[in-house]
Amino acid sequence: MDAVAALAALAQDNRLDVFRLLVQAGPEGLTAGAVAEALDLAPNTLTFHFDRLRMAGLATVRREGRSMIYAARFETMNALVGFLTENCCGGVSCAPAKPSKPARKRSKVPA
Amino acid sequence: MDAVAALAALAQDNRLDVFRLLVQAGPEGLTAGAVAEALDLAPNTLTFHFDRLRMAGLATVRREGRSMIYAARFETMNALVGFLTENCCGGVSCAPAKPSKPARKRSKVPA
DNA sequence: CCATTATTTCAATAATCGTTGAAATATGGA
DNA sequence: TCCATATTTCAACGATTATTGAAATAATGG
């Protein structure tokens, strides 16, 4: 799971609303139209947001007749909450925050 | 707590690294310089990211001599995890299957 | 086939984002 | 005071974002 991608997918008002609605709907999901109606979003805007959620692993689609049915991927959400709990919550355990950068450009040049 | 603001603040690689480092450092925090060195970030870029974290309620600053010391706000982070667990996890527990520390159980768990 | 419904794709747009370099500010010490 | 250190502010810049309108695609029914 890419935590940053998942966080970014949820870090937008409309998209968070969409995801919450999908979570409420459960594994069976909702048609794009139902979400558009519930949240008053243009269908093309909604497609854009669904794509983001899908790319972050937070939603799936399937076609059913003319409708596209989107559903939340709970597994990814659980992984995200797990990541945040383990890495970003004070209390108990915090895994080391390790920078994945190759070199230090800004430190002093040794003599 | 503004969940979207907090999510957005963490939805960026460098900023997530910064926050994790602050969490790791605990309530005493770290100087801006220490974070800059640890993550190899330019000081002005870092100021920008600190500002975002602060605006989202995820960090605090205090001056100590010449240094600015940033610290994670665990309260906000815990609130965020709480929000996600309540609103985005389908009502069932989102907590990782493997707790890092034994917690007191409220009821008996069936085998 | 044609019409209707449901959704996506595409191009354009303004707005925001992350980074950089240069300059400014604040503090402490000689 | 002058100087070095630590950090911020400011003005750019290209990149990405969310939204819109128009057109395209897919499936169903007559």
Report on this model:
2 copies of one chain form a homodimer. The first copy, chain A, has 111 residues and is α+β, with helices and mostly antiparallel strands. Chain A has a single domain, classed as Winged helix-like DNA-binding domain superfamily/Winged helix DNA-binding domain (Arc Repressor Mutant, subunit A, Orthogonal Bundle), CATH 1.10.10. Helices cover 51% and strands 13% of the residues of chain A. Chain A has a 3-stranded antiparallel sheet with strand order 1-3-2. In chain A, helix 1 (3-10) packs antiparallel against helix 4 (43-55) and helix 2 (13-25) crosses helix 4 (43-55). Chain A is elongated. The model of chain A is unreliable at 93-111 (pLDDT under 50). Chains A and B meet through helix 1, helix 2 and helix 5 of A and helix 1, helix 2, helix 3 and helix 5 of B. The first copy, chain A, binds a DNA duplex (30 and 30 nucleotides) through helix 3 and helix 4.
Strand order of the largest sheet of chain A: 1-3-2
Helical residues, percent of chain A: 40-55%
Order of helices and strands of chain A, N to C?
HHEHHEEH
Q: Briefly note the structural class of the backbone of chain A.
A: alpha+beta
User: What's the assembly state of these chains?
Assistant: homodimer
Termini gap of chain A: 43 Å
| Major β-sheet profile of chain A | 3 strands, antiparallel
CATH class of chain A: Mainly Alpha
Count of helical regions of chain A: 5
The whole-number mean of residue pLDDT values of chain A reads: 85
- In total, the number of strands of chain A is 3
CATH architecture classification name of chain A: Orthogonal Bundle
Which two protein chains have the largest interface (Cβ within 8 Å of the partner's Cβ), and how many residues from each?
A-B, 42 and 40 residues
**Approximately what portion of the residues of chain A adopt beta-strand conformation?**
5-15%
What is the general shape of chain A? elongated
Whole-number count of domains of chain A: 1
Name of the CATH homologous superfamily of chain A: Winged helix-like DNA-binding domain superfamily/Winged helix DNA-binding domain
Low-confidence stretches of chain A: 93-111
| Rg on CA atoms of chain A, Å | 19 Å
